[in-house]
Amino acid sequence: MNSVYHIFVRRLSTQQKHYKLVIIGAGCGGLACASKFAKKLSKDQIAIIDKNDTHVYQPGWTLAGAGLKTPDELEKPQSQCIPTNTTWIQSNANQIEPEKNFVQLENGSKISYDYLIVASGIQTRLDKIKGAIEALDNHPQHVVSMYSRKYVRNVYNTLNHFRGGQAIFTFPSTPIKCPGAPQKIMYLADDIFRRNNVRDKTTISYNTALPVIFGVKKYAAALMEIVKAKNIQLNTRLNLVEVCADKKEAIFENLDQPGTMKTFKYDLLHIAAPMTPYEFLAKSSLADANGFVDVIKETLQHKKFSNVFAIGDCTNLPTSKTAAAIAASNSILVRNLTNIMEGKSDAVPKYDGYTSCPLVTGFNKCILAEFDFDGQPLETLPINQAKERFLSYIMKKDMMPNLYWNMLIRGTWNGPAVFRKLFHLGMSK
Ligand code: UQ1
Asked: Is 403 in the pocket of ligand 1 (CB under 6 A)?
């Protein structure tokens, strides 16, 4: 009886299902692509693999950390987000065999495909910092991180109850999603401290692994003025490696002198999590040496496997990892892949690396950074977006979430390039 049962289970688990298109990941990129293909393919032709039953609007985490949104209003059941015309395989992928065109799930079953889109995102790894998780769990009044669905819930409460001392905000030594966020939460914290009359009893430091405050010169210059005006200490090339919560000490490695450590005392520590690609991806032959999917940057097609594409945070696209980058690249991916599926060679615009980072610099203020692969500004509005503006803040806080839920993940938002062209056409006579 027992062995019959086991044979049956094994039969089930080794059963191979086939779909014309398989998408790994139902985050922003996976859903944007699925929604577009769901209009062309039938439910039995397209499958999306994702275990999570909740979809989180992660760009909202900085605002939640500052009490400007509640974490709950950033979440929706995944069942409401996945297009009805798409088969949802609620599991995690744990292996990809692009030579054999299949994906293996956690339970061992295999899903084969004609075409694959990898949209698995990037993994937050607070565990990479010694003592960080223990500190977040056991000392929540001193150590916080909004880079996590679990820990974001505690950030505002802690910032709002802070009564002064040393406040340190970190930026790690790995690629991360939304590289502007670690400083956005700092500027909002600065405003919270001012509102609560504790700013004059507080020193704020931004300890970043990067050599500069921001990678694009135009916005870096504006941000340098802002940190100066806010009296924030910028410490570059420092990477948080350990938190000793009992002693309230954060230990940083000086990246210019590897192996040399510097200890900072803190009363409040905001940790931006180091991030890595998922292991199943990093160990597959789709990955580059760093574990990210190795794509042609203009087309999002894999460099070796022509039936494989990738989008978003899991790729090695040399641009900042944001929802805005997905907005600008998803239609390019879908048009290139459709050409391949249909044996056509219709012209498709090349992805220019467009990405955007609405750098919230305080309550009611925001710099709207937009730029391309070369770090050249690519601004939508016919105004200087490096200036702090209320309009940019409203766009970030109220417009973007609607754009995301109602258009981007539904496959109908291809980024603001059309508006940029329209505005700039209007400006040139
Ligand atoms: C964007 O398209 C987008 O996706 C919905 C975001 O993610 C939340 C953004 O933050 C930004 C800035 C854009 C770009 C859109 C405009 C209108 C500038």
From this structure: yes
For the question of residue 33 being annotated catalytic, the response is no
The domain locations on the chain are: 2-123+276-341, 125-274, 355-428
Does the domain made of 2-123+276-341 have the CATH classification 3.50.50.60? yes
At the topology level of CATH, where does 125-274 sit?
Answer: FAD/NAD(P)-binding domain (3.50.50)
| pLDDT tens for each residue of 150-201 | 999 999 999 999 999 999 999 999 999 999 999 999 999 999 999 999 999 9
- DSSP code string of 216-230: SHHHHHHHHHHHHHT
In the chain, the largest separation of any two C-alpha atoms, in whole Å, equals 82
State which ligand 1 atom lies nearest to the alpha carbon of 396: 10
Residue in the block written with tokens 């914290």: 189
The residue nearest atom 13 of ligand 1, judged by CA position, is 324
- 2-123+276-341 and 125-274 share one CATH topology? yes
What sign does the CA torsion over 67, 71, 76, 82 have? positive
- Does the reported pTM lie above 0.85? yes
| Nearest residue (CA) to ligand 1, atom 15 | 416
Q: Which of 33, 81, 178, 314 is catalytic?
A: 178
